[in-house]
Each structure stands twice: as C-alpha cells, then as structure tokens.
Amino acid sequence: MTLSRTARIATAAAGSCALGLALALPAGAATDDQAEVSVFHGIPGLTVDVYAGDSQLLSGFEPGTVADPVTLDPGSYDIQIFEAGADPADAQPELEQTVEVKAGDNATVAAHLTEEGDPELTTFTNDTGELSGGDARLTVRHVAAAPAVDVRVDGDPVVAGLVNPEQATAVLPAGTITADVVLEGTDDAAIGPADLELAEGTNTIVYAWGSADQNNLALALQTVQTGKSSN
Q1: Strands 35-42 and 65-66
Q2: Cα–Cα distance between 75 and 200 in angstroms, integer?
Q3: Fewer Cβ close by (within 10 Å): the C or N end of the chain?
C-alpha cells in the first residue's frame, strides 16, 4: 500500500484490542481501566444477533450499521454471531471468535467479508490522538469483497492500494469533502462520490463494505471523538 503526500497520513493494520459487551456501562463512562468498543456489521444480506457467551448483546443487527459504543471491563470474550432469530442452542454461528479487551482501548469490531467473500471478524483500533486546531481525522477501512482500492478526496488520491482488511488515516482540514473509492490505479469509481462532513477534533471513519461481485459496494460512517484540539 502506498500513500499520497497530499495529506498528512498515518497507516495502521487492524489492531489487536477487541470486543465484549457483557455488563457494559453507558457510552462515555469509560475510565482508564476500561475500554470503549463499537461493532460494525458489513455482511450484505444478513441480519444478525450478536452474543457474548450466553448473553445476547445485539438483536436484529442490520448490515451497514454501526452499533453505539459500550464501555467494558478488560478481559476475554467469546463472541458469536448468528443469523437473526436463530436459536444458539441448535444453530451454528456465522462467525465465532474469542477476543481480548484491554484497558484504555477505543476499538471497533467489524463483521465483514474478506476479499474472497468469506465472513470474517476484524478489530480496528480507533485513533483518538489529539489534533491541532482546525483539523480533523479521516480513517478509511477496506472491509469489502473487492480488490485493492484507491481513495480520493476532492478528486485527489490520499490513499493508494488499500487492501482488505487494512485501514489508512489522514489528517485534513475540518470541513466538507467529497470522497470516492476507485479500483487501484484507475478512475473507475467503485463507491461514491459522497460528501462527508469532517468535524474539527473528530475521527470520521469510513467503511468500504459489501461485495463487488454482488454489485452492492457501499460506504458506512462512524464518528469518534479525539483528544481536545490544540492551537
């Protein structure tokens, strides 16, 4: 993956911190000894129920949706994702993974397709680092059944060769931008263009999800607060 010099950019592969929603506190109540975790559902055509162990965490979770963040204690959680309405006692989960929550994490767990179209769980660390006054952060995550893509902002490439399931982050002036996703090295738009509002002091996370073969590639958005802006 290569990155344009037209924006200040930091790149990261999916993080290792993770999911578990049992006994969660309200969003925003996290302490330094806890974690804040969201879930993104990016598997087309499949409404799901999400369990941690024997506890149902989400019911009727629709594709393209980001669940509200929850606050967790550190620990290991057995996450199972079933087709909505399935009885966990009888059905096999669509996805199952044991994941770790670490103190201080801010993360999103994405249920999505691999490049080949197989369901997968990937955990991403959300960058909440402090931004300078007037700046915003844009993070793009490739979680679609599609080959490598380039991401353009106002017609200029800011990310090149992004592959599933990687992410890239750019610091940009706050304001409205027009973004699209094209197949790597081409002008063939796979998603967009779409207008995005980058609020000062936030990290706007864009998920490129769906399936190229099924003609249902789409964008989903998540906004995460960062540290206080400084001048």
Answers
A1: antiparallel
A2: 33
A3: C
Q: What is the pLDDT of residues 52-91, one digit of tens each?
A: 888 888 999 999 999 998 888 888 888 899 999 999 999 9
Quick one: tokens of 209? Answer: 């999800």
| Measured distance CA(86)–CA(60) in Å, rounded | 11
Measured from the Cβ of residue 46, the count of other Cβ atoms closer than 10 Å reads: 17
Task: Give the span between the Cα atoms of 127 and 168, in whole angstroms.
Answer: 11
CB of 48 closer than 8 Å to CB of 81: yes
* Nearest alpha carbon to residue 143 among 166, 109, 170: 166
DSSP assignment string, 62-95: PTTEEPPPEEE-SEEEEEEEEETT--TTTSPPSE
pTM score of the predicted model = 0.86
Residue 5, class by beta-carbon neighbours within 10 Å (0-12 exposed, 13-18 middle, 19+ buried)? Answer: exposed
> Tell me: the pLDDT tens digits for 177-223?
999 999 999 998 899 999 999 999 999 999 999 999 999 999 999 99
The owner of tokens 């073969």 is: 213
Amino acid at 197: E
The candidate with the shortest Cα–Cα distance to 95, out of 59, 61, 51, 132, is 51
- Check residue 205 and give its pLDDT: 97
Q: Looking at the chain, how many residues does it have?
A: 231
Q: Among all chains, which residue has been given the structure tokens 């930091």?
A: 10
Which sign does the torsion angle of CA 41, 44, 47, 52 carry? negative
Amino acid identity of 129?
A: G
Amino acid at 37: V
